[in-house]
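[recover] target loaded
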C-alpha cells in the first residue's frame, strides 16, 4: 500500500530506510525531510505482511535546478515496493530527473525508460586534508536561501562561481561553474575551496557530486581535498510508461545492469 501524506506524519516511518549520517543517503534525506513542503511530494509504501512497516518511499521535488522536470529519488526494499512507488508517484509520460544509488538501477530499468544516463561519483571533503586557498580575487556572498556563494569576476561577468545546490543540518552539496574562457587559471579550485571552508565552519560535511566522465571537475575536487567515497549515483531522465508494466521479463537484481 502506498501512502501520500504530509512529511511530518511519515518521517518516523522512514528512519529505518535512511541513514542521516551517511553521504549515500544525504540527498534523499534532504529532499525527504528538509526541502520546502510546498515543493515536495512524498510517497511511502507499507508492507502489510510486516504490520504495515514502511519498506520504501519516493520523493518528488520541484527545484531551481530544472524548472521543467521535478527531481525524484527513492528507496525500496523489494521490487513490489519499487513498482508501486513508480506507479503512484510518477505520472505516466511525464519526464523526471531521477537520481538513485546505483544499487537500485536494476529496478529503475525494469519499470522506467531512461535517457541521458550518467554515473556520478560522490566526493566528501576531508577536513584533515583541507587547506584553505587564499585568493584575493574571490568575492563572498550569500544566495537567496542564505547558503554561501563565492565567485571571481572576469570583466562584467562571473568567470568562476561556486555555491550550494542544497544543504541539510549535516551535509551540503557544492556546485561549481568556470567560464571556458578563463579555465586553467585555478579559479574553479579557488571558489570551491572557499565554499568548502565556509561549510566546514558551519558544521556541515561538503559533498561534491560529479559525472565519472568529467575529468576536469574531478581534478578540481581532488585538488581541494575532496575524497571519493566510492559511492555512485545512477542519474538520468526517467519516464514511466502509461501501463506501468515491466520493461523486461522476470525478476532482475538491482545491480544486474552494472
Amino acid at each position: 500500500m502506498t501512502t501520500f501524506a504530509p512529511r511530518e506524519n511519515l518521517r518516523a516511518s522512514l528512519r529505518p530506510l535512511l541513514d542521516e549520517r551517511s553521504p549515500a543517503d544525504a540527498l534523499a534525506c534532504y529532499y525527504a525531510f528538509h526541502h520546502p513542503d510546498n515543493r515536495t511530494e512524498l510517497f511511502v509504501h507499507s508492507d502489510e505482511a510486516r504490520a504495515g512497516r514502511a519498506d520504501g518511499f519516493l520523493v518528488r521535488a520541484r527545484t531551481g535546478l530544472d524548472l521543467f522536470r521535478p527531481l525524484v529519488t527513492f528507496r525500496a526494499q523489494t521490487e513490489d515496493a519499487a513498482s508501486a512507488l513508480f506507479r503512484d508517484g510518477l505520472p505516466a509520460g511525464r519526464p523526471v530527473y531521477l537520481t538513485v544509488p546505483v544499487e537500485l538501477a536494476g529496478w529503475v530499468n525494469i519499470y522506467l525508460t531512461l535517457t541521458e544516463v550518467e554515473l556520478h561519483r560522490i566526493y566528501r571533503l576531508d577536513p584533515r586534508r583541507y587547506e584553505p586557498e587564499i585568493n584575493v580575487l574571490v568575492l563572498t556572498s550569500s544566495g537567496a536561501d542564505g547558503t554561501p556563494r563565492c565567485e571571481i569576476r572576469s570583466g562584467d561577468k562571473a568567470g568562476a562561481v561556486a555555491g550550494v545546490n542544497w544543504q541539510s543540518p549535516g551535509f551540503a552539496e557544492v556546485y561549481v561553474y568556470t567560464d571556458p574562457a578563463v579555465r586553467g587559471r585555478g579559479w574553479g579550485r579557488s571558489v570551491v575551496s572557499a565554499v568548502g571552508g565556509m561549510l566546514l565552519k558551519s558544521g556541515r560535511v561538503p559533498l561534491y557530486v560529479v559525472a565519472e566522465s568529467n575529468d576536469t571537475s574531478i581534478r578540481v575536487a581532488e585538488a581541494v581535498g575532496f575524497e571519493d567515497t566510492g559511492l555512485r549515483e545512477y542519474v538520468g531522465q526517467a519516464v514511466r510508461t502509461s501501463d506501468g508494466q515491466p520493461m523486461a521479463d522476470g525478476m532482475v537484481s538491482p545491480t544486474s545492469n552494472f
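[recover] notes: The CA atoms of residues 17 and 75 lie 7 Å apart.
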